[in-house]
């Protein structure tokens, strides 16, 4: 009988974080009917596409750990709040995309350090994360969750097929859309998100948005009626259309 794959998304900046991720994986692997995926090292885009995205595609559930990565500031210099790992944010964004596209719930167990602020896709995918306490408490919570949650099995080929049709630039646009909340995202906000997440220059971010829009249309990820608004009006991309199309 096939085991349910649980995707573990946990920071790996410190030895303590890696140890926690390995502990969660060990608990899952020791539970009958389950196995865990935890990427201890992801060093390039190719590895991301080959391993992490495949784990997200196949998983029946996910354990998310949000560790503090420091204070983020707004453009006016005011403190916005504490952010978590960029990698974890992106993995959550892809999980949100998959869940929305397949129109089925993926069980999520989330832990967060108290100062971390939820943003983007996390605000809809993660509800009331548990406080990140001792490793022993985390392990106990994972065991209880595995026993209680309803797992519907991993993804079929739908997500993989649709995702494989997107260029790397288009995948970054999807991540940026989810980062901005996934609904009625202004093009200016989308451009800023691309600049912040992927270090793009303003001109490059604008070009990516323009060039990937036809790709969403041609792959049927966006219905034909979904268009940018005229240039004289604030242009928007409806991320619900992108995700659910």
Summarize the structure.
Helix content is about 50%, strand content about 15%. The chain is an alpha/beta fold and about 240 residues long.
SSE diagram, text form:
Elements (H helix, E strand, L loop, with lengths): L3 E6 L5 H15 L4 E4 L7 H14 L2 E6 L4 E3 L5 E4 L3 H17 L5 E5 L9 H4 L4 E2 L3 H14 L8 H8 L3 H12 L5 E2 H12 L3 H17 L17 E2 L1 H6 L1
Helix pairs in contact: 1-5, 2-3, 3-7, 7-8, 8-9
Walk me through this protein's architecture.
Helix content is 49%, strand content 14%. The chain is an alpha/beta fold and 245 residues long. Strands 2-1-3-6-7 form a 5-stranded parallel sheet, with helices on both faces. Helix 1 (15-29) runs parallel beside helix 5 (135-148), helix 2 (45-58) crosses helix 3 (86-102) and helix 7 crosses helix 8 (187-198). The longest helix is centred in the middle third of the chain and has 17 residues, at 86-102. The radius of gyration is 18 Å and the shape is globular. It starts with a strand and ends with a helix.
């Amino acid at each position: 009988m096939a085991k349910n794959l649980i995707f573990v998304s946990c920071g790996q900046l410190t030895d303590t974080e890696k140890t926690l991720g390995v502990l969660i994986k060990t608990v899952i692997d020791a539970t009958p009917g389950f196995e865990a995926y935890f990427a201890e090292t992801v060093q390039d885009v190719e590895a991301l596409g080959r391993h992490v995205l495949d784990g997200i595609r196949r998983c029946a559930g996910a354990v998310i750990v949000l560790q503090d990565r420091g204070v983020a500031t707004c453009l006016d210099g005011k403190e916005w709040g504490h952010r978590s790992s960029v990698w974890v944010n992106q993995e959550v964004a892809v999980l949100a995309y998959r869940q929305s596209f397949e129109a089925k719930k993926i069980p999520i167990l989330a832990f967060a350090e108290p100062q971390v602020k939820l943003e983007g896709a996390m605000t809809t995918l993660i509800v009331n994360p548990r406080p990140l306490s001792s490793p022993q408490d985390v392990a106990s919570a994972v065991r209880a969750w595995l026993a209680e949650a309803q797992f519907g099995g991993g993804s079929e080929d739908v997500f993989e097929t649709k995702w494989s049709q997107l260029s790397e630039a288009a995948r970054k646009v999807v991540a940026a859309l989810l980062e901005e909340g996934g609904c009625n995202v202004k093009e200016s906000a989308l451009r800023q998100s691309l600049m912040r997440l992927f270090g793009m220059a303003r001109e490059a971010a604008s070009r990516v948005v323009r060039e990937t829009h036809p790709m969403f249309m041609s792959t049927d990820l966006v219905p034909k009626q979904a268009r940018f608004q005229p240039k004289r009006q604030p242009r928007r991309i409806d991320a619900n259309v992108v995700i659910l199309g």
